[in-house]
Design brief:
By secondary structure, the chain is α+β, with helices and mostly antiparallel strands. It has 5 helices and 16 strands. The strands form 3 sheets. The protein has a 7-stranded mixed β-sheet, covered by helices on one side.
Length: about 290
């Protein structure tokens, strides 16, 4: 069978492309392939109101799990409330919506061994062909750019009592600094559940998760929060580009998406706004014969 488009890797970028194509180009025969058990991995993806156009807000809305009308930032001698909406997606909802929308055209537990512009070699030896293939297999192992890193561990906790927060605290930089910039990130998900994330900038992508876990417990204790049940944990080493060549695939003929294409914000490592724009751009393209 010849596919119109094969998307390799069902992460944020390719998932959004598949979602958008399903809405505006349902006649296309699109296959989304993922090595894991579900699309999207284990992530919280957040974005600001002005990151997206009104039309983009509309088409991404079914994937959004939480929104708040504003948020706070705190530094040692400055605290500000920002009156701008903030939004969050969770990968479990993302996976659920994609499964509903794509049915059998989302193929899970299917590792890919090799990708070329019109051919995909599966790890089981099968070969698939398409009029176009987009490689969205996430962050390359070794970036060619000179990078620093944003290291973090985030934990979603149920508390014994309400935490009292009504809006996100995007940066609490009043915490002790270590080596480079450090802050805590808090998302109130319900009156007694909270995502608590310790984020540290570093020159090396070496994440000691136990150290971060202990720091989250200390931070909660200082805020007089009693942690009662750990619901979920996520972690990451996001690249912060300092200098250097573009990622290797951007000079080849292979179309790529998301982190694989170097489409992330140089200072935050965030990729959602660019992934949304890419999904719109792909949905507006003709597929080659
Ligand atoms: C924990 C975490 C939180 C983040 N929070 C935010 C945020 O709040 N806002 C924001 O904008 N950005 C955030 N980011 C940064 C960035 O947006 C994410 O990393 C985003 O998931 C990148 O999307 P992607 O599609 O490029 O890659 P990924 O989402 O990593 O997707 C790549 C997919 O390809 C699959 N894959 C890899 N190899 C193969 C193979 N051989 N065969 C088949 N499938 C394969 C993987 O299993 C994965 O599902 C976060 C990153 C992390 C790690």
């Amino acid at each position: 069978m010849q596919w119109d488009l094969i998307l390799v890797g069902a992460g944020l970028a390719n998932g959004l492309i598949a979602w958008r194509l399903q809405q505006v180009r349902p006649e296309l025969n699109v296959l989304l392939i993922e090595q894991g058990e579900a699309a999207g991995g284990n992530h919280t993806w957040s974005f600001h109101h002005h990151d997206l156009s009104p039309e983009q807000h509309q088409w991404i809305a079914p994937l959004v799990a939480h929104s708040w009308p504003g948020y706070d930032v705190m530094f040692p001698s400055l605290t500000r409330h920002i009156d701008q909406p903030y939004y969050t997606l969770f990968s479990d909802r993302f996976a659920h919506r994609l499964t509903e929308a794509l049915g059998d055209n989302l193929r899970l537990n299917c590792p890919v061994a090799a990708v070329s512009p019109q051919r995909v070699q599966l790890a089981n030896g099968d070969t698939l062909t398409a009029r176009a293939v987009i490689d969205g297999r996430g962050q390359p192992d070794a970036p060619t750019q000179r990078c620093a890193w944003q290291l973090f561990v985030g934990q979603e906790w149920r508390l014994a009592h309400p935490h009292g927060l009504t809006r996100p605290l995007l940066m609490d930089a009043t915490v002790p600094q270590c080596n480079a910039y450090r802050f805590f990130y808090l998302l109130p998900l319900s009156p007694d559940t909270l995502l608590i994330e310790d984020t540290r900038f570093s020159n090396a992508p070496a994440l000691n998760r136990d150290d971060y876990r202990a720091a989250i417990k200390d931070y909660a204790a200082q805020r007089h929060w009693t942690l009662s049940a750990l619901l979920r944990e996520e972690s990451g080493c996001l690249p912060l580009t300092l200098a250097g060549a573009p990622p290797p695939d951007s000079t080849s003929q292979q179309p790529c998406s998301g982190m694989r294409a170097g489409l992330f914000h140089a200072v935050t490592g965030y990729s959602l706004p660019l992934a949304v724009r890419l999904a719109d751009a792909v949905a507006g393209l003709g597929i080659p014969d």
